[in-house]
Design a protein that fits this description.
Strand order of the largest sheet: 1-3-2
Largest sheet: 3 strands, antiparallel
Strand content: 5-15%
Radius of gyration: 52 Å
CATH superfamily of one domain: K Homology domain, type 1
Distance between the termini: 214 Å
Number of strands: 8
Structural class: mainly alpha
CATH class of one domain: Alpha Beta
Order of helices and strands: HHHEHHEEHHHEEHHHHHHEEHE
CATH topology of one domain: Ribosomal Protein S8, Chain: A, domain 1
Length: 508
Amino acid sequence: MSEIITLISAVVGIAIGTGIGFVIRTQMAKNRANTVEAKAEKMLAQAKQKEQETVLRAKEKAIELIDEAKKEEQERRQEISQMQKRLVERENMFDQKLLSFEERKTNLEEKVKEVTTIKEKIDALKERITTELERVAGMDKETAIQTLIERVEKESADDLFGRIQKIEKDNSGHYEQKAKQIILGAIQRCASDHSAETTSTAVALPSDEMKGRIIGKEGRNIKTIEKMTGCEIVIDETPGMILISGFSPIRRRVCQIALERLIEDGRIQPARIEEFIDNAKKELALDIKQAGEEALYKLGITALDPKLVSIVGRLKYRTSYGQNIINHSTEVAQLSALIAEELGMDPIMAKKAGFFHDIGKAVDQETQGSHPEIGEAILKKFNMPEDIWHAAGHHHDDHPDRIITQIVKAADAISGARVGARRNTYEQYVLRLEELERTASDFPGIDKVYAIQAGREVRVFVRSDEVDDYQAYNLAKDIARKIENELQYPGEIKVNLIRESRVVEYAK
């Protein structure tokens, strides 16, 4: 019984302890919850307070912005009002000026009418006076003017001659000296070699036995070479050498290359001749292109079409009056650049125009037309600037209308006039001098004409009883103009006209 009571007591104690622990735990949980809620309420209150402060600050900022906007609007209105006021004032001023202008216009129109009326009266009066003068003088107006001019010219021939000389000296002396300085400076700064080209090329042989092998059996080898190259092979008694004759430097060069390769190979026969000539043409094509590239690189001319470069290279094997054209073109380019620089022009453009001025000579033997026309067409095809193709097409004109073309013409004349630059045969030389003397002597009053200084000067003697000093001055100019118009020559020709009076008397 006591055990049951003890067991019941234990159960009751446990139940009571459990209840007390539950109550204590519940109370602790309530206390903790009350603490979190309090913190949350506090944070919420703080957040509401901050929100109110932010709203207040935003309202204050908005009020400030509104005040500033109103102030700016007021200032703009004031500015607009002032501008409107100024515009009104300007309109009024313009209206006043317009009225004044209209008044002046009206006054001028009235004055023009008055002047026109007066002019008509004066013209009518002049007409009556002229008619009366013609009636009194017995000649019309044109005849009277011509008679007066002739009389004044005859009476004042000496004075007029002296005045013309003075004017020409005053006007041309300074510019002539300046031009001489520019040209001399360009010549001194540009030095070039000149070698006279011939119509034959020499090929060295290792022995005279090679001549027979080049001729071949019944002349088959030499005939094949001549047929395929268009050149003539000259084999004479000159030891260790044969000559290639032909007017085309390109054909001579092809023949020369082929012969040199055949001599090195030693096996000379028609089949191999054809093979070596074909190879020589290919090699020459590469050489032409390389020559064009080297010439353009030397002058600093780049970015050209490869076809134009090849055309330029052909000038290496083109001559004119014995002068190599690619060397001549390079020299003209350098001289043009130097002269253009002295004159304040574009030296780069002048250099290009000078170099391409004879580009037409590269193909003028295969194309119809003169080399200036061909050159102009070629440069237009490759879209070169107008100054360049104009110089190529008009550098032989008497008076080119572009300064660049005039510069190129002067540089071309300088290059061609250098001593040793051009080579003429004796017959051509004599013919040129005879033509110069004949041209200068084709005027009345001329006694004798002599071409001296290798055609650089023509000395003209006139009959003093037929030509006076004034007429001699005009005659010298007429001779110079006729030489310019009818003859072609490098550089310039000095016309030296001599008039002398000789008085002979005999003592008996």
